[in-house]
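Reminder to self: tokens first, then the designed residues, so the page reads top to bottom the way the pipeline ran.
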């Protein structure tokens, strides 16, 4: 029986692409981070959680870059800086929305980013998607609609404050741009360097709002803030490696897994009981993600002339250079 179970697990792992598995792991650890941010937000301003995440991630990123014996400054510095800036904007919007919205609502709105990422990847990266991939994205978006229940479709009022919902939406778009930028960097820079640029920019940019809202954390909150940084760093590494190994549209669709995780944590920890429509929407999202996971990705269009990188796992990531030494994608952001 043990041998049979091991063989079944082996066949299952062979069918799941490494990039999609890495994105699923990233979704789980990001959901843990969201829980800790929600806990911290009961007393601390959002600027404190942003700084905590950036500071812990900066220390761990420096250690990761040194361990890999890489230059921390990377090769495509323009896109590295843009990745850090867009990531910082997306993070702030998401954290501020978590303070006001329920855990599930904030996560659902934030993870509209696969829709934005798929469009941006098709325009700038010339990545191809099958009809079934597009259908899965549309179905996932329908699931988001069922969860948020906008008043122009369901009547009444929004289940969440409109301002916080708009912030979460802005965060989703910024995160999508960051994801596509990471995808562009896959042939020039190692994952450790790409991750390093986020806290490199987030920490100094977080100082002004931190000083404005300065609040002393309680003893237990220091541990929560540390947990935010550690869980985020783990998630960022999985996210970056997953985007190296999978197309942007399909890979970022795995982010929708945070929605079921958010509902689970909301029920277990915050007594946030979802309604029937919300559960139906979560089911649509979960089914779409499963279909996307088990279908192999298409190669990019010939015109993009992108050489697919080797899969990255563990500590074997190395910096990559473009074949022609120039801008592979020809995209100016």
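Designed residues (333 positions):
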């Amino acid at each position: 029986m043990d041998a049979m179970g091991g063989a079944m697990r082996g066949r299952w792992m062979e069918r799941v692409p490494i990039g999609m598995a890495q994105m699923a792991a990233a979704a789980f650890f990001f959901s843990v981070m969201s829980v800790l941010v929600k806990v911290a937000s009961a007393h601390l301003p959002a600027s404190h959680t942003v700084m905590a995440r950036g500071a812990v991630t900066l220390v761990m990123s420096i250690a990761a870059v040194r361990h890999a014996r890489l230059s921390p400054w990377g090769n495509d510095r323009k896109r590295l800086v843009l990745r850090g800036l867009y990531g910082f904007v997306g993070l702030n919007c998401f954290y501020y929305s978590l303070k006001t919205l329920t855990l599930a609502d904030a996560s659902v709105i934030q993870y509209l980013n696969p829709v934005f990422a798929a469009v941006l990847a098709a325009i700038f990266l010339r990545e191809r998607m099958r009809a079934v991939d597009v259908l899965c994205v549309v179905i996932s978006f329908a699931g988001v609609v069922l969860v948020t229940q906008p008043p122009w479709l369901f009547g009444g009022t929004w289940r969440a404050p409109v301002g916080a919902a708009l912030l979460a939406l802005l965060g989703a778009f910024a995160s999508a741009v960051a994801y596509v930028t990471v995808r562009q960097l896959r042939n020039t820079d190692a994952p450790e360097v790409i991750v390093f640029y986020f806290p490199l920019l987030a920490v100094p940019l977080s100082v002004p709002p931190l000083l404005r809202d300065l609040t002393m954390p309680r003893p237990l909150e220091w541990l929560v803030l540390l947990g935010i940084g550690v869980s985020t760093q783990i998630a960022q590494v999985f996210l970056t490696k997953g985007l190296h190994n999978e197309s942007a549209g399909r890979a970022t669709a795995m982010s929708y897994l945070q929605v079921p995780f958010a509902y689970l944590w909301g029920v277990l920890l915050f007594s946030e009981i979802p309604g029937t429509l919300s559960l139906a929407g979560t089911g649509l999202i979960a089914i779409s993600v499963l279909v996307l996971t088990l279908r192999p990705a298409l190669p990019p269009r010939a015109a993009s002339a992108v050489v697919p990188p080797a899969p990255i796992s563990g500590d074997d990531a190395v910096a990559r250079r473009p074949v022609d030494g120039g801008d592979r994608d020809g995209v100016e952001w």
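The radius of gyration is 19 Å.
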